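Changelog note: in this version the structure field was regenerated for every chain. One regenerated record is shown below for reference.
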Amino acid sequence: MLKLIFIIVLIGGIWFVHSKLGVKWSSIFMGLGAAVVALVSWSSKSNSSSRKAGHDLVNRLSSLTNYELKNFINDYNNDPMERQTAHNILRSRRKTILIGINKC
C-alpha cells in the first residue's frame, strides 16, 4: 500500500513539475535517471562494505578453536548475528569431521 501511495505521489509530482513549472519531459527523465544511477551506486557500495565486514568476521571466527567457539556462542554479550555465524562455523566443522569418519 505504501508503494502505491509513493508511486501516485511521484507521478503527481512529475505532472506538477511538467505542467505548472514548464520543465521539459527530457529534463525530468534525465533527473530520474540520475537518481536511479545514484541509488544503484550507493546500494552497491553499501553491499560491498557489509560483505567485507562479514568476510572479516568469518576470518576472525575461523581462527578460533572449537572450545573458543563454544564459549563465544554461549556468551550472550556478543551480537546475535556473530553468535549465529560462530554456530554455523562450528556446525560445519562437525559435519566435516563426520564426513571424514564415514569415508574411513
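Spot check on this record: The mean pLDDT is 85. The first helix runs from residue 2 to 21.
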